[in-house]
Amino acid sequence: MLIIPVKEGENIERALKKFKKKFDRTGVIKELRGRQHFTKPSVKNRQQKLKAIYANQMKTAQE
């Protein structure tokens, strides 16, 4: 459960912004999207390796 302390006289938009930021950091939406379908561990590992290779190529291209 997320608790956002709201000070007296604080703008409601600011409190909502704090809530949204905290909610995004928890990763609930990302986890729910990931649970919509099952991916085999071997496929996950392959995707992670491909992502790491791509990131490494981008990093070396900048240097």
Keywords for this entry:
63 residues; mainly alpha
Quick description:
By secondary structure, the chain is mainly alpha-helical. Helix content is 70%, strand content 0%.
Number of domains: 1
Q: Low-confidence runs (pLDDT<50, min 5 residues)? A: none
Structural class: mainly alpha
Helix content class: 55-70%
Helix-strand pattern: HHH
Please describe the biggest sheet, giving its number of strands, its sense, and whether it closes into a barrel.
none
- Give the CA-CA distance, first to last residue: 44 Å
Number of contiguous helices: 3
Tell me how many strands there are: 0
Subunit organisation of the chains: single chain
Mean of all residue-level pLDDT scores: 93
> What does the radius of gyration come to?
19 Å
Q: So what's the overall shape?
A: elongated
Beta-strand content estimate: under 5%
How would you characterize this protein structure?
The protein has about 60 residues and is an all-alpha fold. It has helices spanning about 10-25, 30-35, 40-60. It has one domain (about 10-60). Helix content is about 70%, strand content about 0%. The radius of gyration is 19 Å and the shape is elongated. The N and C termini lie far apart (about 45 Å). The mean pLDDT is about 95.
